[in-house]
Amino acid sequence: MKIVIDAFGGDNSPNAQITGGLNFLAQNNDFSLIFTGDEALIKKELDKYKYDASRVEIVHAPEVISNEESPTAAIKTKKESSMVKAFDIVKNDPDAVAMLSSGSTGAILTGAVLKIGRIEGVLRPTLAPILPTKLKKGVCLVDGGANVDCRPEYLVQFALMGVCYMRAMSEIENPRVGLVSVGTEDKKGNELSKAAFAALKELPINFAGNMEARDALTGEYDLLVADGFAGNVLLKTVEGTAMMVMSRLKAAIMGSTSAKFGSLFMKKAFKQLKRDMDYNAYGGAPFLGIEKIVVKAHGASNTAAIEAALVQIKKMAKGDVVGNIKAEMQKLQELQAANAATADNA
């Protein structure tokens, strides 16, 4: 199976993409990689390492899509960019199962929809980042910001797609699903969340009801469902809180001699805490609902983050997440047709 990597989509390109990719190849003999980007610069970086050249390919793409550009215009006009070339390969090569990029989130979403296409029946793709929890297991958030204006039927599909994803990633057969709201009571929330609550109750999933944001990282849930606006606010609040806590902790330790001395005995624990909170360990965020696997890595991804994202793609491919989502969308359409027929007869 081939994975296509946009080698020039992030802050640490192409070093992180290449070193992370080669580390992944060394551990996974059933995959090969295609790097898209400036061929000379990619070759220069590759020459620093020993690797199986038969499993690495370069596709020259001299242009780069920046975060400042209009996503739609860039995807349509920058045909020689590393991102567009990557999309073209994934679309046209049946052996290419996935694409990984650290580039513009908007451009990746636009390219995924325009170049590869949505799974039949999917109304909107959803961004599905993984967040750490206090139980040292990840919780998936759908939607993390791809769709800020949603309808209840979008959230229903987000939940079904998220369940398929978490089954592959966590090997939990029946992930516990919570709906992000302003209270745990059934009637809490705005009109969107109330309607979504009623629809989610009818699905064959392990729906636990409404969930307050303060419980997002408790580990009691495997999947959090939200519209992209609330989901992105939750995501960025978690990121900002983590940075603030780590900063204040460091300042407190450095503020006195006794604290510095005491921290020596806590060094191992602090390192473990940092590892648990490090987004690099969680890979990237896939866009669920696309015909092939498309993963958005953090713009500042380092070697470890790229390697983790590739492991994530491997799990998605081996777990046939795309195929399972297709099956769930088919079941949903059949259920909706049956409900409509029942309503007409009544």
Q: Would you spell out the secondary-structure blueprint of this structure?
A:
Blueprint: E1 2-6, H1 15-27, E2 32-37, H2 39-46, E3 56-60, H3 71-77, H4 82-92, E4 96-101, H5 105-116, E5 126-127, E6 130-131, E7 139-142, H6 152-170, E8 176-181, H7 191-201, E9 206-212, E10 223-225, H8 228-254, H9 257-265, H10 267-277, E11 285-288, E12 293-296, H11 303-318, H12 321-345
Helix pairs in contact: 1-11, 3-5, 4-5, 6-7, 6-12
Explain briefly what this protein structure is:
With 346 residues, the chain is α/β, with parallel strands linked by helices. The chain has twelve helices and twelve strands.
Description of the structure:
The protein is α/β, with parallel strands linked by helices. It has helices at residues 15-27, 39-46, 71-77, 82-92, 105-116, 152-170, 191-201, 228-254, 257-265, 267-277, 303-318, 321-345, and strands at residues 2-6, 32-37, 56-60, 96-101, 126-127, 130-131, 139-142, 176-181, 206-212, 223-225, 285-288, 293-296. The longest helix has 27 residues, at 228-254. The model has no long low-confidence stretch (mean pLDDT 92).
